[in-house]
Amino acid sequence: MASAELQGKYQKLAQEYSKLRAQNQVLKKGVVDEQANSAALKEQLKMKDQSLRKLQQEMDSLTFRNLQLAKRVELLQDELALSEPRGKKNKKSGESSSQLSQEQKSVFDEDLQKKIEENERLHIQFFEADEQHKHVEAELRSRLSTLEMEAAQHQAVVDGLTRKYMETIEKLQNDKAKLEVKSQTLEKEAKECRLRTEECQLQLKNLHEDLSSRLEESLSIISEKVPFNDTKYSQYNALNVPVHNRRHQLKMRDIAGQALAFVQDLVKALLNFHTYTEQRIQIFPIDSAIDTISPLNQKFSQYLHENASYVRPLEEGMLHLFESITEDTVTVLETTVKLKTFSEHLTSYICFLRKILPYQLKSLEEECEASLCTSALRARNLELSQDMKKMTAVFEKLQTYIALLALPSTEPDGLLRTNYSCVLTNVGAALHGFHDVMKDISKHYSQKATIELELPTTTQKLITTNDCILSSVVALTNGAGKIASFFSNNVDYFIASLSYGPKTGSGFISPLSAECMLQYKKKAAAYMKALRKPLLESVPYEEALANRRVLLSSTESREGLAQQVQQSLEKISKLEQEKEHWMLEAQLAKIKLEKENQRIADKLKSTSSGQVVGVAQEKAAVATATGQEEASAKAVPEPVHSASEIGILTRTSDSEAPDVESREDLIRNHYMTRIVELTSQLQLADSKSVHFYAECRALSKRLALAEKSKEALTEEMKVASQSISRLQDELTTTKRSYEDQLSMMSDHLCSMNETLSKQREEIDTLKMSSKGNSKKNKSR
């Protein structure tokens, strides 16, 4: 394709070159003709200059001749003047001379006259020749200037064409080089594409084989395991539980909460409006406290008194609808069963509005028939009666559309799924119409209240009631506007959320299928909840690896633990033997102590009471020392330590020690403490030796692991060195291939340069041939 484009471009360039060549020949021919004309004109100008110079020379010679003749005439006149007096004197003698002079004079006069005429004729010819020469010179000069301008223009055109021709040649050469480079890149890309297509074909073949095997396996599994496809039939598909969309449910619940708040405000405003309207009927046009009102207003007041039983259910129905939308349900028109209840409550309220509408119109007419009713007030009452009719009609329209939206949850064929969006759009339009009607009611009622305020019989109770009615109407207007704007903002979401339902289906077939689907959803949720058991805490993978390493390289291996257990058992047996030995020693020491105490008691019976008390205290101290070593040490007041070869001996000062203390008790206590210290040191030494032995085993295991890792690293190093050598070999082969490619590219560039040089030679030959043709045209 690149070669075809290149060939087409060369053909176009050849055509342009032939056109430029023909134009160049024509322009050269014109330039040559103009140059020939300018040369001929120059020759003519040169000949005219020569003739002019000849005429000037003749003129100069004639003027010189005229001057000579004039001088001669002057000389002749002078001679004549001199000869006249002489002639008077010698008339006689000079008759012959006078005749002669007269003849000469006549000859001279004739000659002079001829010269004068000739001179005049020459002057006229010179003037005419000079004028003709000037005229021809001016014409030739103007023609020469025009020819020079035309020649300059032709030369500029020729220069521009040559420059354009050279630029075109350079551009063509550059385009040719670019196209060659592009053709090379395209060839490379074509090769790469061929390789890719081959790879893709192989992958496609493998994928086809894989998918065909999977398809056969899936078909066999479906034929063996699946009894029927429940998504094939819409009746069965409607029973499938859709994917739980928590965001959708939360959004719907949020929207339902906002709608509930708006409906609560609207219900409150409607209650106030009906209540204050009842209160107004009781005081205007006749105050019930002064006189009885008309039976019509009595009946109207009775009906208005029942407004709460019709308005309150609207709030309750909306509350039940809000409570039915939870996070666990699927909220579509087929599942919102509570919307039917709200529609029924709205229908009952519409019946209430229809029931009170005739009484309201008649009450307004009765106000118009009152004696104090002005024309402006009558006009406002008529406008209000029209607004009340519009309000009832708007509520009926709204109730119709809401009843249509409630049909999918009760009757499957009551409303087609394709009409959902149209019904929702009409609900929004009805809400906007309700808002417009309430704005008109607010406007007209405010005007009516202003007019009634100017009446002389208006009471303060009526003014207050009108203000309350106006505030309730304003609240109704604001609530209607909020609901209308809220529904308009969310109508797109309502329309989009209608597709939320069973997968690969057009929706629920009937309310019964939707109810069954919700039951299945609850069962599935309970099943998933039962399956969701808390998993036991597991050790993280990294920590488990670290523990494994510790197990392999620490003292917690089975052999080490077995040896430690055996050693500990041996120590326990030794300690039990020592315990029995020392228990026997303690019993013997206790017997000796009792004997010694009995002897001391017998010896000290004759002593004083103070000494008896001291002895008793010493006995208590000795008894506690035998039971608890630390307590005995504390009971001795301020012991003094002295070093000896067998250890540290504790003794008291001679001044404070009692007389009854014996040296044997001190020695026994000393040896007991010494034995305790030695046993503790022995246990510490045993524990240290076990610890050192465990550390040695761990170090030996670590050493073995290090040797194993060293061997693995040496193997890896060998593999890495082999891969390095292989990569070096590949690098050398790639270098050679790149060098070969570079040599091929250099050869290709040389061939391209040769072709370019040939083309330049062809262009030079074309130029030479064009110059030869131009010379031939000039010669012609």
UniProtKB/TrEMBL annotation:
It is found in: Early endosome. Its main location: other. Residues 84-104, 760-780 are annotated as: Disordered. Keywords: Coiled coil, Endosome, RNA-binding. It comes from the Eukaryota. InterPro entries: PPP1R21, PPP1R21_C, PPP1R21_N, PPP1R21_six_helix. This is Protein phosphatase 1 regulatory subunit 21. It comes from Bos indicus (Zebu).
